[in-house]
Amino acid sequence: MFSATLHRPEVLAALYIFAYGSFFITLCSSIVLYRLSPLHPLAKIPGPTMHKVSKLWSVWICWQGRQHTEFKAMHDKYGNVVRTGPNEISVIDPSAVTDVLGAGGLPKGKYYLARQDERAPSNLLTLTGEKHASRRRVWNRGFNADALVEYDGILAKCAVELVEGMQVDSEASKGEVDLTAWFNYFSFDFMADFVFGGGSEMLKKGKDEKGILELLEHHMITGALVSHIPWFFYLGNKLPGVTQSTLKMRKYASEWVAGRLRKGAEVKDLWYHLTDEAAMEKDKQPLMNEVIADALVAIVAGADTTSVALTNFFWMMLTNPAHYKLVQEEVDRVYMEADATDISKQSDLKYMSACLDETLRLLPPGLTGGPRQVPKGGRQIAGYFLPEGTQVYLPAYVMHRNPECFSPRTNDFVPSRWLSADSKSPSPNASAVEERKHDRKAFLAFSQGPANCVGKKLAKQEMLMVISLLMQKFDFNFAPNFDWERWPETMNDFLTTARGPLKMTVRSK
């Protein structure tokens, strides 16, 4: 009787469900208990219980774009070292910068590998070790002093088109423009010209007809989410529609490449250097598919970060009118008898540079960035021994607001901290010498170490030219009824930074 009952289908199904359910409950419980137990190698590092248990909470925070503010809240509560995941920590101790990002520091790990489509070649962002060093050598030639001179004309052309486009838009909309949109158009057009010699005309058209910017944002959001759960990336590659944005971006890249190959090298653009047209790499020429992958990274990374920095700068200027006035006076003085596209005069823009650096400190384009991974053998970081595989964040937004790195008035806009003691540049804070004390190695707007931002010098030239030209041509004010005080809340942290419209009234001088 009992045997017959046992073999009934519904009884067997119930037994299977009970057995598998018991197994998974036991498995999950043991994992949770281990991650919370004193036996876990990161047990001594404080942090929220939910973060210690699972990365799913981090995915939710990332989805909302709140990673930078969440990390800030955790560090305010727990200190310089916080456990932000089962095998992940965040560090804002300035002593850890060299240990993590310096020569011999920590390599990139699974966070970046999740961004590497297995159907596509590797790129500079995902490479590590010798392969990264070899590829970085080619990139460096595209950003050395001689190469930067070649880009002056490209940059000036796009900057002038930005002014012209904003002028037309202002006249058509009763003086009101969206700086976020226009800086997006500018930075993308410039990167397309700089990398491929053309391919984008958003500035001339005053809009993104192909929806590329929306596509890029979708691509970055997807990448940010799957980087927290790398196993889902490989599953997602098998699902229809998940990689649609990536495939579309490759399509556009292929079109730009085809146009560049037809046109040839009119100037020594980045493509010229990445493909090694000068035959500097005698041992091994770069492969075409790798060059395309790197070129796409250059456009995505370069366009987004510059656009964000410019938008943040103008918001910061208008919320600090005393500093805006001083920057405007400096522009008028330096470019009194010259056009602001003259890069040779940028070394005289000392106060503007200080204001730009202070903007990058308070609102870095990469608010949190990606973590590095502890290699075999483990490492000692910020007083803790970390086992192999531990992910280590150095979140720029939080690091820059650590009083141990920048103080006093850590959360205030104080450009004078970037000026030398003997600087003759005017400043509302010029007498407060103590405010200039800060830890430069903790400034991570362009990262640090061998894998820092390869385009830092070009980005600074680009931003100084655009700011100077716009201030030479226009007066800016926040648009009526625009809630400028809450605008920073529109920033969403997806490795790069998405943000809402920045509405301003623009009046020609």
Automatic annotation (TrEMBL):
Gene3D superfamilies: Cytochrome P450
GO MF annotation list: heme binding; iron ion binding; monooxygenase activity; oxidoreductase activity, acting on paired donors, with incorporation or reduction of molecular oxygen
Residues where heme binds: C453
Protein name: Cytochrome P450
Coiled-coil segments: none
Swiss-Prot/TrEMBL cofactor(s): heme
Keywords from the named record: Heme, Iron, Membrane, Metal-binding, Monooxygenase, Oxidoreductase, Transmembrane, Transmembrane helix
Transmembrane spans: 12-34
Pathway, per record: Secondary metabolite biosynthesis; terpenoid biosynthesis
Family, as annotated: Belongs to the cytochrome P450 family.
Localization: Membrane
Main location: membrane
Pfam families hit by this protein: p450
Any one of the GO CC terms: membrane
